[in-house]
């Protein structure tokens, strides 16, 4: 293996233009880790938050952006028996994905589903870890329940629609254009709500209210989500694109026995992420291998064009995931 590798680093907090190609030394896998030769890296909203200076890496993680990748195992650290050199994997990363090589705990890697290309495999970890833990582990979504996901055409949204449909839930989604709404319908949503033309609260309440809502908007959506919930409904918050602060009448929460919860993935313990990976391997990965569900990929950019990839993501014109080819 080479001593040096190509990377994209954050030169200073700011817009996409602060992402610059550079060279770094190869990282070495520590106990329980694997070294991945990256073929493709996924691009995600937390990468942009880190670039802007508002989402610092956890202690010990790489300062390079990139929370998911797919590629080939190049080396294994001490204590690793489940992977060997040459295995094709996709993995959740603590950081460092915008590079030719990256290390991650071995328990956070999953096999590339049979027959799936590496570019599509790179779209899997971040969204599937997030949706599985929030919609099913925290939200407790069950067959027959009504599920609403905001941003249905995003990477998270396209994954959530498919997994919720797979579980037997009734799926509703919001999106901001006719094209994006059609994409949600094509993935299995029974109703796609263009939030520019319709009030999702009215639409969902007419159906009996949502049992589970997955939201990344926050801000003024929070009280509207509470109104849209059915009695004993669960609101799961995973981001705050419109801000984390809002005035909310909690009497509704008490009287209707609602649950408001949420999580972020990156700060969770290695053990917690390993448990999520096991759940995905058992319940979701067979359906990916069969082709019953699959990632939606919007576009591909060369690693050195990461700034252009971020600009596209922040334009919100994409449908599905954006990847970097390494």
Kindly describe this structure.
- The protein has 326 residues and is α/β, with parallel strands linked by helices.
- It contains eleven helices and 15 strands.
- The protein has helices at residues 45-52, 118-121, 125-138, 155-166, 178-187, 200-206, 221-228, 251-255, 270-283, 285-290, 306-315; strands at residues 4-10, 19-25, 33-43, 68-76, 88-92, 101-105, 109-111, 146-149, 170-175, 191-194, 210-215, 229-237, 259-262, 297-302, 321-325.
- The longest helix is centred in the middle third of the chain and has 14 residues, at 125-138.
- The model has no long low-confidence stretch (mean pLDDT 97).
- Residues 14-324 form the Enoyl reductase (ER) domain.
- InterPro entries: ADH-like_C, ADH-like_N, ER, GroES-like_sf, NAD(P)-bd_dom_sf, Quinone_OxRdtase_PIG3.
Keywords:
Rossmann fold; 15 strands; 326 residues; globular; Quinone Oxidoreductase, Chain A, domain 1; 28% strand; GroES-like_sf
Quickly describe the structure:
This protein is α/β, with parallel strands linked by helices. 30% of the residues lie in helices and 28% in strands.
List the helices and strands and how they pair.
Layout: E1 4-10, E2 19-25, E3 33-43, H1 45-52, E4 68-76, E5 88-92, E6 101-105, E7 109-111, H2 118-121, H3 125-138, E8 146-149, H4 155-166, E9 170-175, H5 178-187, E10 191-194, H6 200-206, E11 210-215, H7 221-228, E12 229-237, H8 251-255, E13 259-262, H9 270-283, H10 285-290, E14 297-302, H11 306-315, E15 321-325
Parallel strand pairs: 8-9, 8-11, 9-10, 11-12, 12-13, 14-15
Antiparallel strand pairs: 1-2, 3-4, 3-6, 3-15, 4-5, 5-7
């Amino acid at each position: 293996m080479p001593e040096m590798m190509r990377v994209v680093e954050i030169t200073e907090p700011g817009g996409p233009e602060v992402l610059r190609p550079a060279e770094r030394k190869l990282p070495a896998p520590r106990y329980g880790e694997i070294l991945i030769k990256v073929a493709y890296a996924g691009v995600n909203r937390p990468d942009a938050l880190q670039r802007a200076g508002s989402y610092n890496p956890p202690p010990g993680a790489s300062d390079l952006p990139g929370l998911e990748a797919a590629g080939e195992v190049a080396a294994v650290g001490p204590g690793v028996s489940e992977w060997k050199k040459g295995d094709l994997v996709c993995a959740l990363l603590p950081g460092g994905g915008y590079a030719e090589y990256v290390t991650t705990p071995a328990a956070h890697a999953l096999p590339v589903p049979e027959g799936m290309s590496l570019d599509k495999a790179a779209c899997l970890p971040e969204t599937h870890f997030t949706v599985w833990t929030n919609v099913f582990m925290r939200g407790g979504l069950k067959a027959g329940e009504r599920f609403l996901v905001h941003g249905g055409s995003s990477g998270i949204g396209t994954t959530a629609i498919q997994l919720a449909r797979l579980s037997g839930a009734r799926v509703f989604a919001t999106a901001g254009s006719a094209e994006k709404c059609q994409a949600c319908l094509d993935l299995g949503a029974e109703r796609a709500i263009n939030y520019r033309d319709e009030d999702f609260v009215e639409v969902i309440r007419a159906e009996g209210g949502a049992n589970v809502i997955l939201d990344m908007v926050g801000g003024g959506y929070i009280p509207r989500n509470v109104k849209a919930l059915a009695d004993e409904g669960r609101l799961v918050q995973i981001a705050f694109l419109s801000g984390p602060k809002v005035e909310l009448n909690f009497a509704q929460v008490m009287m209707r026995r609602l649950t408001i919860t949420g999580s972020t993935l990156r700060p969770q313990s290695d053990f917690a992420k390993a448990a999520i990976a096991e759940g995905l391997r058992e319940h979701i990965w067979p359906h990916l291998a069969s082709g019953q569900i699959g990632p939606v990929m919007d576009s591909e950019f060369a690693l050195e064009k990461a700034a252009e990839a971020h600009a596209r993501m922040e334009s919100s014109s994409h449908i599905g995931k954006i990847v970097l080819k390494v």
